[in-house]
C-alpha cells in the first residue's frame, strides 16, 4: 500500500504546488527511480492544474509519475489501495469551493503538510483549514513554513514560530527558504533535482531533502508508538482545542 501525503491549505499562493513537486522529486530521486520505474506518484486534485503544466514542461526528466485527477472522485477515493508506488504526493486546490475534493483526499491521507508563509497576519485561512477541515478527519498533520527570505531577518520567522507554538500546531523543523530558483522552476520546466550544481542551488535543494527526511521519518514514528518525539501529531488534530 502506498503512503499518501497530502499538501493542503485553502489559501492560494502559499506553496502547495511548489512543495508537492519538489518533495515528490527528491523522494523519487533518493528512493531510486529508473528510466522505466519510479516509487513515487504525484497527483494534482487542483482544477487549475498548475502542477500538470509544470510536470508537462519537465517532460521525461520528471522523476515521478504524474496524474491530474481533479474530476475523478472515484480514483481519489482509492489512492491508498494503489500498490505500484511507495509514496503518493497529492497537491490540492487553494479555494473553499473545492472542499469536497479536499475532504476526499484527506480521508486517504497518511499525513498532511500545511504550507504557510511566514506572515503571521495571513494565518487565519491556514488555521481555518486545519481546525475546520483537516483536524476533524483525524489524520496526522504538520505545518510547514515556506518562502522565508533570510535577508528579511529572523523577526517574521520567530513571530510565525511563536504563533504556531501558541496554537499548539505541530510544525516541521525544516523551513523552506525563498529562492528565485524555486519561483522560476515551473516556467523553466525543472524540479529541485535538476537544479545546477552551484552553491545556491545546493542550498535550495537541501531544504527539500531535509523536509523529505522529516516526512519519511514521521512515518516510522507513527508505526512505533512511544518513539514519536515531537515529530508527528498522532492524535486527531492534536493541540487543536
Ligand atoms: N520557497 C519558495 N521560494 C520562491 N518562490 C516560491 C517558494 N514557494 C512558492 N513560491 C512561489 O510562490 C508562488 C505560489 O506558489 P504555489 O506553489 O503555486 O502556491 P499554491 O500551490 O499554494 O497556490 C509561485 O509563483 C511559486 O513559484
Ligand atoms: Mg497550486
Question: Outline of this structure?
Answer:
It comes from Pseudonocardia eucalypti. With 241 residues, the chain is an alpha/beta fold.
Provide a descriptive summary of the structure in words:
- The protein is 41% helix and 17% strand.
- Strands 3-2-4-1-5-6-7 form a 7-stranded parallel β-sheet, with helices on both faces.
- The protein has one domain (3-216): 3-Layer(aba) Sandwich (Rossmann fold).
- Strand 6, helix 6 and strand 7 (171-177) form a beta-alpha-beta unit.
- The chain has helices spanning 16-31, 50-58, 73-76, 99-108, 124-137, 155-166, 180-188, 199-223; strands at 3-7, 40-44, 65-68, 87-91, 111-116, 141-148, 171-177.
- It has 8 helices and 7 strands; from the N terminus they run βαβαβαβαβαβαβαα.
- The longest helix is centred in the C-terminal third of the chain and has 25 residues, at 199-223.
- By secondary structure, the protein is α/β, with parallel strands linked by helices.
- Adenosine-5'-diphosphate binds at residues 12-18, 50, 94, 146-147, 176, 178-179, 182-183.
